[in-house]
Design a protein that fits this description.
Layout (H helix, E strand, L loop, with lengths): L3 E6 L6 H13 L2 E7 L10 H11 L6 E6 L3 H7 L4 E5 L3 H17 L4 E5 L10 H9 L10 H11 L1
Parallel strand pairs: 1-2, 1-4, 2-3, 4-5
C-alpha cells in the first residue's frame, strides 16, 4: 500500500525549514504532496502561482514530491488527493497548541486523517516565513534562509 502524505501550508515564502521537513517526509513516505494553500485570511507577499513555482523549483530534486495549489478545506484536499496522513511542522509550544486544535478539528471532519508532527533540524528551528519576509523588507540578508531562486524573488518583490 502506497503511503501518500500531504504537507500543507501557505509557504509565503518557502524556507529551508520547510524544505528540511519536505525532504525528511520524502524519505519516510512513498509520496509527498506539498499543498500550497490560497489562505484568503492571510495577506501573502506572493500569489498562489508564484508560491507553487518557488516550491517546485526548491524541491525539484525530490522525485516523490509533488507541489499542488489548493483552496478550500484541507480535509477536502486530502480526500481529493487520496491522502490519509498529514505532515505538520512544529517549532515551538505555540505551534503545538495551534496544531493540536487543528488536528482535533480535522479528526472530526475526516476521522481517517492522521497527523504526523516533525520538528525542523536544529539550525532551522527559529526560521519562519514571517521572519524571512520581515528581514527582507528591512533590507537584511536572507540568502542563508531560503533557496537561491526564492531569495532572488523576495529581493525583487520587496525592492
Amino acid at each position: 500500500m502506497t503511503k501518500r502524505v500531504i504537507y500543507p501550508g501557505t509557504f509565503d515564502p518557502v524556507t529551508h525549514g520547510h524544505s528540511n521537513i519536505i525532504a525528511r517526509a520524502a524519505n519516510m513516505f512513498d509520496e509527498v504532496i506539498v499543498g500550497v494553500a490560497v489562505s484568503p485570511s492571510k495577506k501573502t507577499l506572493f500569489s498562489l502561482e508564484e508560491r507553487v513555482a518557488m516550491l517546485q523549483e526548491t524541491v525539484s530534486h525530490l522525485t516523490n514530491v509533488q507541489v499542488i495549489g489548493f483552496s478550500g478545506l484541507l480535509v477536502d484536499f486530502a480526500k481529493q488527493q487520496k491522502a490519509t496522513i498529514l505532515i505538520r511542522g512544529l517549532r515551538t509550544t505555540m505551534d503545538f497548541e495551534y496544531e493540536f486544535s487543528l488536528t482535533s478539528m480535522y479528526k472530526k471532519l475526516m476521522p481517517e486523517l492522521e497527523s504526523v508532527f516533525l520538528t525542523p533540524s536544529e539550525e532551522f528551528g527559529f526560521l519562519s516565513s514571517t521572519i524571512v519576509r520581515e528581514v527582507a523588507i528591512h533590507h537584511g540578508e536572507i540568502d542563508q534562509f531560503v533557496h537561491p531562486s526564492v531569495a532572488k524573488a523576495i529581493y525583487k518583490k520587496v525592492k
